[in-house]
Amino acid sequence: MFASLRSDIVARLTDAEFRGVERHTWIQKITCPECHKREAYAHADSPWLVFCGRLNNCGVRSHVTDLFPEIFDSWTERYQPPADAKPNPTAVANGYLRDGRGFDLTLIHGTYTQESFFSQQWGIGTTTVRFTLPSGATWERLLDRPHRFGQKAHFRGQYRGDAWSLYDDTDLAQAGEVWIVEGIFDAIALAHVGIRAISAMSCANFPGDRLARLQQAATDASTKRPALIWALDNNPAGRDAMERHIERAAALGWTNDGAQPPGGRDWNKLWQHGELEDADVERYRYYGALLLAPTPTAKAALIYRRTPRRDFWFEHSRRVYWFELNPDDLNKALESVTGDSDADERQPTAAEMDEAIRQAGKISRICNAHPTALYYQANADTDEAWYYCRVDSPDGTSVQNTFNGGQLAAASEFKKRLMGISAGAIWSGSSMQLDRLLTDQFQRIKTVETVDFVGYAREHGAYLLGDIAISRGRVYRKTGEDYFDFGRTRLKSLSHSPELHINPDLEAFDTSWVANLVGAFGADGVAALAFWLGSMVAEQIREAHKSFPFLEIVGEAGAGKSTLIEFLWKLAGRVDYEGFDPTKASLPARSRNFAQVANLPVVLNESDRELDGGARGRQFDWDELKTAYNGRNIRARGVKNAGNETYEPPFRGAIVISQNAEVQASEAIQSRICHLRFTKSRQTRATKELAEALERADVDAVSGFSVRAATHAQQIVDLVSERVASYEAYLLEDDHIRARRIAKNHAQLLALVDALGPDGLNLIDESTVGDGNERVIQMARERQTAINADHPMVEEFWEAYDFIESMYEGSSLNHYGSNEDHGRIAINLKEFEAMCGQHRLHSVPPVKEMKRYLRGSRSRPFVDSNISVRSRLRDNAATVRCWVFTDSPNRQQKP
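The structure corresponding to this sequence follows.
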């Protein structure tokens, strides 16, 4: 093993996660990646495999390429020889094939070359290992961080009808058997155990041209044509292709048989795991025979001859059957078939045994579909659990869905659920037969961890974005079983909302929208885009800085707010969506909207409508959002069980507020907001055309923004952490900015503008970065001015007060009388309301509403409410209950 590679692997196996201990020739007490017990071990000299010592309960073998894919992500850096070394044109390819695939290089010498692949769009390249097919077409594996290119391999030329092999046609013709597999590495792996194989390159490709040449080679050598062993991958596509190709090959006169790798693994993986011994190969051929069995009876006979049992279930043609056989009946049938009353005289042939089993056995169909338990999933927070199952129908369709424990505990409940998720599927077996089926399928069933939101799972360091996931800078696609496999972790989201459609192919990512966005919205558009980028790393920013601000986008109707926000959602893969109106949503609905995303925005749309204090207006209070600023829970609810547990999901996303009027709330909320105002003043025909171009933008062409942001998340977070402190200090030096929270919020936004530029994602140039930063600084100044001002209701109150006071000589509302004596104002609010009615000041809000905001009065600071004041407005100096304010901000003492 390459020294630096061994060093890296040993370091991982002995780190804080795996906790292994290196002792002489072994690494012991490794935490098993499957059962998580510290009973796994590996060879210290060549730690390719990690063996779990719990043979009865786990016993799994894990290859280090699956456990630590990041170690095997860049082969050129590790294997490129130094400049002063002897030239080796295949040094990197050799390292990959030997250490990444486990191959003996002497066996495959001369069959490959080391080449390179370069992407013109991204300006990046990689070393490749290339193989050439007889037709001249080539296939090459990308070796250095292939996730950057959205593909692992690259074809050149047409391979249809052709196949690759280590051996020439003459050698294959004399082999007796030729295995047909999908990948080149599968064919090489089988060659290591003496099996002659050809690679069809894809399960969809029938290698008719190569078989024709093979037939001619057999004719030339006067030998019998070899039998074909179809050994495509064990997945639905591979199994269907095997049956289709065998039928076609049989029509051409070929003898056919099958073999199947277990557990969805390929032949190369089996070679690396040491599972291609003779007994293993014989078992894989048995799996192939089961797949190709023509009738249920033939399949039952195969199973019984291998593992004799009185009764068992089995699947055939996507239906489930039950087989029963009495040994006495079998003996009688054998006597009848062999014509020999003494069963011990000779061993019956396979054909005789099959016939006896056919006569004595009883087969009944217990389900007209094939349900398969795939894995166990649970939500620890709500104490709920499910088994995720696939139901295959005879017509070739498959559905995947969950069954809970109650639905699996009895045949009647299972039948109801099965009929509900799969059209026409009926279970007709007994509860005992269901128990047997589930017991067999639950042996060592996989466990998949779950989250109940869409976006960034902080505990796992992974973004779950619809059908793709991104972890440690790599893009993963969902497995066929609806979860993401990160090597050491299997993870899925239980949430189906929001539905994201993100194109992971960065070759298709078109950045022309950036110029349209800047042209249509100017520096305001840059600031909004920067916040949107920040929302994709909000969890990491809050972890480092304990908070992340809100963004408020306001403006008159037709100013472009909706166009901007709907386009920004396209960058996240969400189409035809702007936000939700919290005044139209119930409390549980709002809570779910806030909890269903992580590192994605939650947009509150048109939430300023309060309907003059009506029920709908009162049901949403801006103060509900205070805790979201720090990523804490917005609402708690009880867990449905007999205990006292509560479910309090933290807020993991970012808040965006879009409305026509500014948010009117407490200073605590106002200081958490970065504010953008859009007007029609800069709209022209040119900006209209640019905005319309954004509206027409295809989500497949722009959603690569999310992929780039997520794959560069650590770089963005590092840049923000590096610059926030200096930006915050710079803003606090500004004479117009005094609130530290405002400075911190806008410092984060300034750093995110930088992250859009050459130092980060390189979407905007330095000049545009400068314009965006100037706009953010202006936003900070405007926010400070906004929190210094009174609420509009308070301003309306004091305007009405001053107007009424000006109508009389002396004071008419201030029960303290002269301000010159007291410097305070004492107002009875009911009396104020009556005076407003008397003077027809109908625009003044009702006292019931004003009470919410008068305590925050800044122009005349609030002192206290309901104070008993000896009135100077009344002759008898009666005591009146008043709200008291200080007329001078410097005198706020209570009376």
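The CA atoms of residues 550 and 673 lie 5 Å apart.
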